[in-house]
User: What shape does this take?
Amino acid sequence: MHDTPPSVPDFTQWPSFPFEGDLHVKQLDDPVPVEPPRKGEGLRECTACNAPDDAYIWVGERWRVRAMDRPTGLPMVLILESRTHLDLGDLPNLLAAELGVMTVRLERAIRSLDGVARVHVNRWGDGSAHLHMWFLARPYGRLQLRGTFLSLWDSILPPISEAQWRENLALVAAWLAEFGGRPLAEPPRIQWQAPSSLLAQSEAADAAAAVAAAAAAAAAASVIEAAEEIPEPAADSTPGVDPTDGDMAASTDPADGDDDAGSTRAVVAPTSEAASPAPAASQAPAGNAAPAGAAAPSGTAPSGATPSGVSESGPSTSDAPKPGFAGAVAVPASGPAVLPGTRAGNGPTDDAAEKAAGELDKPPRKPAPNSDA
Assistant: This one.
């Protein structure tokens, strides 16, 4: 005579029970005389002992924490294992005491995650002889998941996103690492590439640098052009060389590192009599000479017979011009320009003409009282 199946227990009516409908209780099998060995018992290999540290999210000297191989329905499901192949009842006092500390520490780490209300701690141990403690996080507000059937709901609920799952693993590993050990779980954002906005900002910075370099080059060119049109005299001498006849050219040497970006340097080239036009103004009679400032008498000429900016031995470089100098003059088409207070020419003929002009400009000497004249 077959046994009558028992009636469905009352817990099937609990709100936390995950099934409904017509339920039947399975027929209970007869007990076996000898239970089969678990993993890690007898000749069966131990999965935990053969697993490398890379398979765990956190490892310590005597304990390791691992997760499932993929996301599940609960926010977090972790397993705490001892490094030594021992079961719960085989733990020495030191490891037994540490098990209590690790249980509390891991429970706090999981409960610190967003959306976690409680952490269920379970130990079954029917499948493996290696000590392993289960930690299951119950989502906040899901009252239907309270109680005994949380592990069943983990297989029924849709899995959480992998990004959130990896983020949770990294947070728990970092929490445990605050007390020692080594975290091995990394959040997914560490493996992400830089956002496109950062790339756009980098390209914008490069474009701005290119625009700035072009603007600097344009500014340098405009300075050179201005210097060619309006030559400025040296600060410590009187200018007397026409920039249009090749004697002086304003240039900016990029190799001169001590010059500012906007400064120019006046370079004096050797004077060639064959290439220079004849200074007609210097050969004019003294009576038709330029105003007094144009040709100074020989007795009042500045020290040195060589005009400013020209040396007998070759080209020389004048000092930087003083700002605010207003001595620029227009260059006539028929001859060289004459700056106020300077001499028009450079050659021996110019010196003789100036000497003669100086003699004519001298007032006549009065005769002595006893002179025959």
In short: The mean pLDDT is 71. The helical segments are 47-50, 93-111, 150-156, 162-177, 196-229, 348-361. The two ends are 181 Å apart (CA to CA). The chain has two domains: 10-27+34-191, 236-299+307-319+335-357.
